[in-house]
């Protein structure tokens, strides 16, 4: 098995004649956490959308576990083991917390409609496993007590956590987290950071995190890439990126940060 789980070569995407991503490259090792940072409009979410098939590139290749996924559809990419969260929550607000988790997982169930209608053993077995997985994830994120509550009635920080739970319910090999701590209090963000570190170690997950909250991503990521106007301008450890002259100028103005 290759050490590299995701390889991106010379990726390009333009909107209305303006480049959103230009010549982007990535060699992502397994079981690592990478950070992707940059100012608004740098192309970070565009890269996530390209990886997950929501939009198609104008050039370049995306290779996942040795397979070219550049032109696959989103559901095909998800079944291969890539899951994500979104900057804007994509939850079913009128459904319960538990139902939201189960819906996310259902794309991986192996039973058909007739199994469910007739309560056949295959259906019953997989539903029990789904119940157990939902309970495990909701307990881990402190959401199990809300499992019968409509999602729209939860505080925003809890909804953010549920977005991560839904992505994990798909049992991904690669998890893309887009602004996971957005809108959270400082305490909620710290708790989420510890949970992400815990699940990454426990499940040997590979992750890419897009995040504006610098301490959050700096404390989690082993390697960080910095984008500016769709161009990769720096890559390295948090310490290296923190003091990189181009990063300080392009992303932080003329001031460094702690």
Please provide a brief summary of the model:
The chain is of the alpha/beta class and 258 residues long. The chain is built from 10 helices and 10 strands.
In the CATH hierarchy, what is the class? Alpha Beta
Q: Provide the residue-averaged pLDDT.
A: 88
Strand content: 15-25%
What is the number of helices?
Answer: 10
CATH architecture: 3-Layer(aba) Sandwich
Poorly predicted sequence stretches spanning 5 or more consecutive residues: 254-258
Q: Please, how many domains?
A: 1
Helix/strand class: alpha/beta
CATH homologous superfamily label: P-loop containing nucleotide triphosphate hydrolases
Q: Estimate the helix proportion, in percent.
A: 25-40%
How far apart, in Å, are the first and last alpha carbons? 38 Å
**How is the CATH topology named?**
Rossmann fold
Strand order of the largest sheet: 6-7-8-3-9-10
Shape: globular
The number of strands is 10
Largest sheet: 6 strands, mixed
């Amino acid at each position: 098995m290759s050490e590299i789980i995701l390889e991106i070569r010379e990726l390009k995407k333009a909107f209305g004649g303006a480049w959103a991503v230009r010549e982007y490259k990535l060699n992502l090792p397994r079981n690592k956490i990478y950070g992707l940072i940059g100012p608004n409009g740098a192309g970070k979410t565009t890269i996530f959308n390209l990886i997950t098939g929501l939009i198609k590139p104008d050039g370049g290749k995306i290779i996942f576990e040795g397979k070219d996924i550049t032109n696959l559809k989103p559901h095909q990419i998800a079944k291969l083991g890539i899951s994500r969260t979104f900057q804007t929550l994509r939850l079913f607000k009128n459904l319960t917390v538990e139902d939201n988790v189960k819906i996310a997982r259902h794309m991986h169930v192996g039973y058909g409609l007739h199994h469910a209608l007739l309560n056949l053993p295959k259906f019953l077995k997989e539903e029990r496993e789904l119940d157990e997985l939902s309970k495990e994830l909701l307990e881990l994120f402190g959401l199990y007590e809300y499992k019968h509550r409509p999602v729209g009635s939860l505080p925003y920080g809890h909804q953010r956590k549920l977005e991560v739970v839904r992505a994990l319910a798909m049992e991904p090999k690669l998890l893309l987290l887009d602004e996971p701590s957005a809108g959270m209090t400082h305490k909620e963000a710290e708790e989420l950071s510890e949970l992400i570190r815990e699940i990454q170690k426990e499940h040997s997950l590979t992750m890419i995190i897009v995040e504006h909250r610098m301490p959050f991503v700096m404390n989690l990521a082993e390697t960080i890439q910095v984008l500016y106007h769709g161009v990769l301008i720096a890559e390295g450890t948090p310490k290296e990126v923190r003091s990189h002259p181009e990063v300080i100028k392009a992303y932080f103005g003329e001031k460094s940060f702690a």
